[in-house]
Every structure is written in structure tokens, then in C-alpha cells.
């Protein structure tokens, strides 16, 4: 198959790397949930050779991710694994020793119930004092930080009423139950943010 390509992933990978690299300096194994095309996995594994970067996504996306990984031939980038937050996925990943989780542009294409399951799984998987790095567009108290994000939210909900830009207050509620606290909220290009959650001991 042809290797999939996402222009937005190409554009945002370096700004994201600059934010996450110092927060992963002491990590050794990262689980990426919702790897999409696989571009981020290749870029980050190349730049952070001390990390084992594990790409995952729903089964239908794995062939495309595999194209990127097989072409890159990086020792710290294994074959992608299937992960669907609607499944009982935690036990399958629990013994792998992940000490950080990363996910980009996933929360707004999930239902709110799926986002809650995402946080529950991350909280159950991570050891204490580990980071969950979540990138994408987010609102705060129902307010978007740009007109473009408001229009994007409307478009998402027209196409799928269960999707939509997620509000930080909802995420904080899910995080609290999962044992995660918001450590940093970092403004990114094109009105996105990187949210840094920390697993409490």
C-alpha cells in the first residue's frame, strides 16, 4: 500500500517535539495512543533514541503506520500494535513497562465516553510520577480560544454528534478519577495546546 501522509502531522511534529522532549528525558518507554499515519512515531523515535516508542491505533490504521516504521528501520520503533479504547486494552499493555503516554489529535474525534476511558486506561497503566502528554485543540469553560477552533468544533459535531473539541474542565474531572493532575498547559501553533498530566504516586 502507499504510505499515508498527513500535512498537519508534518507541520506540527517539530513544535511538539520541542515541548515533549524535556518531559521525556528520563523516560525509557512511551506508549503512543492513536498514532494515525505513524509520522509522529518516526520523527520522535529518530530524535529521542533513548526512548522505545510504541505506536498503536485501531486495526484499520496499522498497515499505514507499518509502512512508515518499516521504511524508517529504527531500533527503538517496534511494529505497531492494535489499541481501541472501547476494548479491554489495559491488561494487554500493563506488563510492558511504559513510563509515559503520548496522544495527539485524538480526543476531539472520540466520544466523551471514549475520552473518559482513555484517561482511565492511562491512569491504570502509568506508574507514579509519569507523564501523559495530550496534544490537540481544547476549550475552557465552554469557550474556544479562536474562531477557527469554534468552526472546527461545529464541523466535527455536524459530521458526528459524539465528537467535538473537548473542554479542559471535563478532562480535569476524568483525570482526577484516574489519579492524574494537570501539570502544564502549553500553547502551540494554530491554536492547539499540549496538556501535560502527571500520574500521582
TrEMBL record:
Biological processes, Gene Ontology terms: methylation
- Keyword entries, A-Z: Methyltransferase, Transferase
List the Gene Ontology MF annotations in alphabetical order. methyltransferase activity
Q: Which InterPro entries does this UniProt record tie to the protein?
A: DUF938, SAM-dependent_MTases_sf
Instruction: Please give the PANTHER family that the UniProt record associates with this protein.
Output: UPF0585 PROTEIN CG18661 (PTHR20974:SF0)
Question: Can you say what this protein is called?
Answer: Methylase
Amino acid at each position: 500500500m502507499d504510505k499515508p501522509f498527513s500535512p498537519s502531522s508534518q507541520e506540527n511534529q517539530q513544535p511538539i517535539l520541542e515541548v515533549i522532549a524535556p518531559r521525556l528525558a528520563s523516560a525509557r518507554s512511551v506508549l503512543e495512543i492513536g498514532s494515525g499515519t505513524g509520522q509522529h512515531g518516526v520523527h520522535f523515535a529518530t530524535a529521542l533514541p533513548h526512548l522505545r516508542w510504541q505506536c498503536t491505533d485501531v486495526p484499520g490504521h496499522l498497515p499505514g503506520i507499518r509502512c512508515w516504521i518499516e521504511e524508517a528501520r529504527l531500533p527503538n520503533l517496534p511494529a505497531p500494535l492494535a489499541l481501541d479504547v472501547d476494548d479491554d486494552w489495559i491488561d494487554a499493555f500493563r506488563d510492558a513497562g511504559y513510563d509515559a503516554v503520548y496522544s495527539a489529535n485524538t480526543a476531539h474525534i472520540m466520544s466523551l465516553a471514549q475520552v473518559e476511558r482513555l484517561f482511565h486506561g492511562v491512569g491504570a497503566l502509568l506508574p507514579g510520577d509519569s507523564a501523559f502528554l495530550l496534544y490537540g485543540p481544547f476549550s475552557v469553560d465552554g469557550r474556544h480560544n479562536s474562531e477557527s477552533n469554534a468552526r472546527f468544533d461545529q464541523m466535527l459535531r455536524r459530521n458526528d454528534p459524539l465528537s467535538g473539541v473537548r473542554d479542559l474542565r471535563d478532562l480535569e474531572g476524568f483525570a482526577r478519577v484516574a489519579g492524574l493532575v494537570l501539570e502544564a498547559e502549553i500553547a502551540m501553533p494554530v491554536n492547539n495546546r499540549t496538556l501535560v498530566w502527571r500520574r500521582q504516586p
